[in-house]
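Lecture notes, part 5. Sequence design as translation. It can be helpful to think of inverse folding as translation between two languages: the language of shapes and the language of residues. The source text, in structure tokens, appears below.
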């Protein structure tokens, strides 16, 4: 008897792309799909379609050898086009990066045909900072993790959980660091914090901030829109945030950092895991035994120790709980774009 298994391309794949990194996150899923031998239909976000269209034009002009129609881009309403792709019998796999409600809607639609999905959804990442950490370096990384891209990142470290013995000192270090970050148009010299994607989105972030402050917490930095063209907002830090405050558990998707205190390792773990999300969490300590134990017990698909945020093409980008289903990046991502066939031969 001869028995073997084949991995074959899954077929036609639909890629629903977010607006926060419109080209980078498109290529993250398009590349492995093409490498596995699949065809691709990519649908960019209606707010940010131009970079993917421009890239497609370059690919067409470069004549890279892709057969006609293997890679296509379709634009339009997320509700209209997304639903059509997710529910189409001719689509064999769906990849979405977006919010939880969108992911739930796509998954429900895909279930009509039992179409497999990879969903990379939201996050409410926590950075847990212990007294023995390199506080100066950690403060810079905390700023990078929440204020880069104006906080519009699923893997943003939007919660800071800091030991009570260093709370005041460390919060002041974060404020000092972010005060050096220039806000303005992204192509301008020296700018570190750009615009939010749209004024409507900024209004939503500010409304969620106001709601959170009404539940407690103390504003120690920022908190206002910046006047002028665009949708700019001050880097914002709120301390004394309790777990029942929306600022602790709701994904604002903007430049807002909530700060909570802890006294023991057990309390730190409880606070970090007290979230519906589980994408990327950070640990800051020079005690590697503590770090590895905490990393094991954190309920998230990714954990970074003494740097944040960081990921690599060769490592899995994956979330637990409401942060998603499946894996982006790494060899594991390629598995989604193939299906297994077992062949048995009686000799």
């Amino acid at each position: 008897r001869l028995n073997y298994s084949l991995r074959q391309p899954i077929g036609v794949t639909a890629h629903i792309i977010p607006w926060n990194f419109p080209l980078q996150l498109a290529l993250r899923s398009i590349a492995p799909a093409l490498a596995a031998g699949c065809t691709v239909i990519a649908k960019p976000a209606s707010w940010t379609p131009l970079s993917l269209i421009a890239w497609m034009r370059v690919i067409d002009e470069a004549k890279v050898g892709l057969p006609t129609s293997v890679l296509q881009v379709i634009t339009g309403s997320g509700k209209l086009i997304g639903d059509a792709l997710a529910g189409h019998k001719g689509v064999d796999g769906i990849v979405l990066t977006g919010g939880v409600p969108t992911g739930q809607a796509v998954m429900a639609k895909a279930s009509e045909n039992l179409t497999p999905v990879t969903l990379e959804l939201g996050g409410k990442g926590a950075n847990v900072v212990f007294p023995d950490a390199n506080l100066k370096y950690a403060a810079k990384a905390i700023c990078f993790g929440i204020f880069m891209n104006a906080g519009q990142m699923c893997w943003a470290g939007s919660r800071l959980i800091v030991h009570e013995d260093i709370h005041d000192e460390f919060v002041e270090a974060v404020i000092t660091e972010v005060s050096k970050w220039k806000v303005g148009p992204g192509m301008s010299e020296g700018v570190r914090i750009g615009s939010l994607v749209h004024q409507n989105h900024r209004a939503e972030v500010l409304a969620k901030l106001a709601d959170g402050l009404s539940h407690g917490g103390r504003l120690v930095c920022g908190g206002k829109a910046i006047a002028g063209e665009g949708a700019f907002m001050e880097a914002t830090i709120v301390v004394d945030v309790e777990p029942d405050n929306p600022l602790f558990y709701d994904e604002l998707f903007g430049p807002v950092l909530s700060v909570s205190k802890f006294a023991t390792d057990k309390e730190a773990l409880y606070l970090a895991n007290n979230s519906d999300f589980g994408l990327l969490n950070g640990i800051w300590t020079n005690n590697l035994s503590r770090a590895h134990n905490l990393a094991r017990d954190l309920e998230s698909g990714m954990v970074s120790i003494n740097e944040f945020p960081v990921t690599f093409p060769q490592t899995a980008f994956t979330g637990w709980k409401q942060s998603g289903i499946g894996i982006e990046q790494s060899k594991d991502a390629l598995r989604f774009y193939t299906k297994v066939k077992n062949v048995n031969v009686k000799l």
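The translated text above is only one of many valid answers, since several sequences can fold into similar shapes. The mean pLDDT is 96.
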